[in-house]
UniProtKB/TrEMBL annotation:
Record key words, sorted: Hydrolase, Membrane, Transmembrane, Transmembrane helix
Top-rank lineage group of the source organism: Bacteria
Protein species of origin: Sporosarcina soli
Protein name per Swiss-Prot or TrEMBL: Metal-dependent hydrolase
Annotated transmembrane regions: 44-60, 72-99, 119-147
């Protein structure tokens, strides 16, 4: 998936798990791009190359940072500083990223197990799946915000 789709999916999940809190959406959106720290060529990896290069060297791409273990550890790490709402947003944002990557390839979801999980697709399908996913996410978040504010009035 593209970084913008990962950020959007993280925002949607952060917003959802916090019951419609905009802060959850922001944290989830940021967390949604964090797993690509393992790829120095990614937009996020280039920005934080000093972290990305060593992570890529040690783990490779779509391994540790694309696992349930990483999501759990990130949530545990942030919890003492923020509370449950932010920890849930981080976990949800990371898991949204992982789910997106599983639609367009395989990840080591159960790292440190070497088992790969996901759907292998032809390279020509990548942009189509990304576009469809982004469109569905935009429709969902638009609907959720509309319902939330229509119920207030």
């Amino acid at each position: 998936m593209e970084w913008s789709t990962h950020a959007l999916s993280g925002m949607v999940m952060g917003y959802t798990v916090t019951g419609g809190d905009w802060r959850g959406a922001v944290i989830g959106g940021i967390a949604g791009v964090i797993p690509d720290l393992d790829e120095p060529k990614s937009k996020f990896g280039r920005l934080f190359f000093f972290i990305s290069i060593p992570i890529h060297f040690v783990f490779g791409h779509r391994t540790f940072t694309h696992s349930m273990l990483f999501s759990l550890l990130a949530g545990i790490l942030i919890y003492p500083f923020t509370g449950w709402w932010a920890a849930l947003s981080v976990c949800a944002g990371i898991l949204a990223h992982i789910a997106g990557d599983m639609l367009t390839g395989k990840v080591k979801l159960f790292y440190p197990s070497n088992r790969s999980v996901g759907i292998s697709i032809p390279s020509g399908m990548f942009m189509l799946i990304d576009c469809i996913t982004r469109s569905v996410l935009i429709l969902y978040i638009s609907w959720a915000i509309l319902i939330k504010y229509l119920l207030i009035f």
